[in-house]
Design goal:
Layout: E1 2-7, H1 14-24, E2 34-44, E3 47-56, E4 59-67, H2 70-91, E5 102-107, E6 115-123, H3 130-140, E7 144-148, E8 154-160, E9 163-169, E10 173-182, E11 189-195, E12 200-202, H4 204-213, E13 218-223, E14 229-235, E15 238-244
Helix pairs in contact: 1-2
Length: about 250
């Protein structure tokens, strides 16, 4: 079992880290197999926010809570998480072990049985050139592709009908108009001009919310937790998340 406590743009004290670990492991008794407890703390104006993701028994439990301090935010969220886990277990038989492919996500603030199924689509972590990424996009007939470029930076190429954007993330997010000057199946001629940034940094839950609330069928973004590009997209009745495999 892995417990990961981090701060987003803030430093986490050892006291808060130890308090978080002691609180979150109390939920372990409800599961057969816990893969990871993940807690992220960050500030939003005057609020102190705690976000928790639990991956256990093939299910993702997710919750966010705000309060005047991080300890109170975690305490409030823990009560809600425990209630949601109990409700879910009463209605679903959680079998030992994780399921490959489709992973239910249960939001702590959702109604009794409200959940979203998301399929994780991991692509190769082998570095590739921008031209190679474009050629793979053509072969697959897709509108986007996440990859690591030759510098080891996270990148996503997206668009269609000859009009593409390239977003690259290292210390900052840079974006380019990606123009195919001369198309070829072996050596396309590419021209890139820097443009304004449209790809935002956000967590997965915010990206899912934007996908649901907007008329777009895919959202490229930089994952605020990993710093890498992801794409969340609608595929039929399910939602998929494309990311570069860690290994």
């Amino acid at each position: 079992m892995k417990v990961n406590v981090t701060g987003r743009h803030i430093s986490i004290s050892e006291r808060l880290k130890e308090y978080s670990e002691k609180k979150i492991v109390k939920l372990e008794k409800y599961f057969n197999q816990v893969i990871e407890f993940k807690l992220v703390y960050y500030s939003e104006k005057m609020d102190k926010t705690c976000e928790v993701l639990i991956y256990a028994d093939g299910v993702h439990f997710h919750g966010i809570e705000k309060a005047g301090d991080f300890y109170s935010a975690l305490d409030i969220l823990m009560d809600k998480l425990e209630q949601q886990v109990k409700k879910f277990k009463e209605k679903h038989q959680l079998h030992k072990g994780t399921h490959l492919g489709e992973v239910p996500i249960v939001d702590v603030h959702a109604d009794d049985d409200e959940k979203m199924n998301i399929v994780y689509n991991e692509v190769s972590s082998k570095p590739s050139s921008d031209a190679e990424a474009y050629l793979q996009l053509k072969v697959d007939g897709d509108y986007f592709r996440v990859y690591k470029n030759e510098k080891g930076e996270s990148a996503v190429l997206f668009g269609g009908n000859g009009q593409y954007k390239l977003s690259v993330a290292s210390s900052d997010i840079a974006e380019y108009d990606f123009q195919v000057v001369k198309d070829s199946w072996t050596n396309p001629e590419i021209k890139m001009d820097k443009s304004s940034v449209s790809v935002k940094k956000m967590n997965v839950s915010d990206a899912l919310n934007e996908l649901v609330s907007s008329e777009r069928w895919f959202i490229p973004f930089v994952n605020a937790d990993s710093g890498a590009h992801n794409v969340v997209y609608q595929k039929g009745k399910r939602v998929e998340l494309m990311m570069v495999a860690e290994k």
